[in-house]
Amino acid sequence: MPLYEHPYPSPELEAQFPFRSLDFVRYSPLEMAERGREFHAHLAKRRSVRMFSDEPVPRELIEQAIESASTAPSGAHKQPWHFVAVSNAETKHEIRLAAEEEERINYLEDRMNEEWQEALAPLGTDHHKEFLEIAPWIVVLFEERFEQAEEGARKNYYVKESVGIAAGMFITALHLMGLATLTHTPTPMAFLRKILGRFDNERPFVMFPVGYPLEGVKVPDIRRKPLSAVSTFID
Ligand code: IYR
User: What distance in angstroms lies between residue 19's CA and the mean position of ligand 1's atoms?
Assistant: First the structure.
């Protein structure tokens, strides 16, 4: 008896669309455990950074991280993301001014309610976003709600999920290369589309200042939830 009654791809499907054999690497059980441990130990050191050095970062490293992010799985393989990487000082200045204006309203004119402000208190964030100018790169990740095809606009699927996964992989790639970032969402972010001259089918999803941490920078002394709090196993 074969394991599967309904093999994938079916012969009809394979006659219609191209398929190829999976290129997959298997490790010994020992290697698997070791790789998992090492990866976790490395990721456990990642922290969001809010004070960057102005030391330049080569464009190739940013390109590399975007290529890694772009391997993310996506709904119907539409890859509904676009990364805009900015190192131009004038553009970064414009972004900082616009972000600070939105955040000034959030923090000083109470656009964030009390509960939200309370949750943020231990992080000590405020409307000053100097790092947007000082970090050598600002990478803005746009989600594409539609795909511009020749016949007109076509809907993309599971856009937030797909772009969220790509964002996670981008952050991971940067960290593994030895770069720091911050998941930054100045709200609302519509100004980014205008400043960066992006199209109507795109919407800013998140932005990432990227660089080296400023020497001696401090981060909040927070703990991560233990495995037992973030998982349930049904064996
Ligand atoms: N966008 C604001 C507020 C903010 C919101 C969350 I949720 C954070 O984790 C941190 C900050 C800002 O960037 O300051």
Answer: 44
CB 78 within 8 A of CB 147: yes
What are the 10-residue block averages of pLDDT along the chain, 235 residues in total?
94 98 98 98 98 98 98 97 98 97 90 90 93 98 91 92 98 98 93 95 97 98 97 97
Return the exposure string of 195-213: e unless at least 16 CB atoms fall within 10 Å of the residue's CB, then b.
Answer: bbebeebbbbbbbbbbbbb
Protein residues with CB under 6 Å of any ligand 1 atom: 103, 106, 120, 123, 125, 184-187
The beta strands (E) that lie in the chain are given as 81-86, 137-144, 146-149, 152-155, 180-181, 202-211
pTM summary value: 0.95
Ligand 1 atom 13: residue of nearest CA:
186
- Which amino acid appears at position 213 of this protein? P
50-230 — its CATH code? 3.40.109.10
Pairing of strands 152-155, 137-144: unpaired
Residue 235, CA distances (Å) to 32, 33, 210 in order: 20, 19, 41
